[in-house]
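User: Here's a chain of 113 residues. Predict its fold as tokens.
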Amino acid sequence: MATTNTPLPSDFPENGPDNSGVRRRGRHPESWIDELEATLNDKDATDLEALRSRLSEQLRATRRSLRDASDNAGDLMRETIDCTEEYIHARPWQAIGLVAGAAFLFGVVVGRQ
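Assistant: Prediction complete.
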């Protein structure tokens, strides 16, 4: 049996997944909202300026985290598109077969309704 130099799907991307954004995605957005609510419900904070500065800092941190999450999603989308293009160029006939199969299944599902 002849071997081909075509990469396997597990070979994409070549250097493995990019884990640089994992550290930035450490906190869930609900935790940011919980922090803001805790700050607003804090009965000990009587100084309005101190409360305002705490809220302002928490909002800046939330905005930064959401921006990072958006950037990470964009990077992941670009990486996925690049990986898909590489796979399609490496195996064009399989890609055509997959698209044809998906179109057939879509036609069957839509045709029944």
